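Support request, please re-run this one:
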Amino acid sequence: QVQLVESGGRWVQIGGSLRLACAVTGRTFSEHSTGWFRQAPGKEREFVAGISWEGDNVYLSDSVKHRFTISRDNAKNTVFLQMNSLRPEDTAVYYCAADVARTEVVTTTSWSYDYWGQGTQVTVSS
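Re-run finished. Output below.
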């Protein structure tokens, strides 16, 4: 059984940094693109960042561009989301997801993704 497990979420002060990790465990599947999404209370899930299998195609939403970066280590089956200059509006549950139909492109629509993690809470406040 394939599982995506997020880690690294916690409370952090405004302006602080966090690095989230998404590990694929269990029976690993073939090459895939990976995305990070987030959902704040009372809001819809939104795309944050995505990365192709080789890591040469990266896309970040306008709200996190210049503050967040996404990277991956395929040898460790892990994708990272480095979050800097965090703001209260970044508070949300962060989910990673795998798109097994695509390897070289990144999509921003949640329904394109086949496997999801359980989420990790990020809280930003003073």
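Residues 17 and 71 are 16 Å apart (CA to CA). The chain is about 0% helix and 50% strand.
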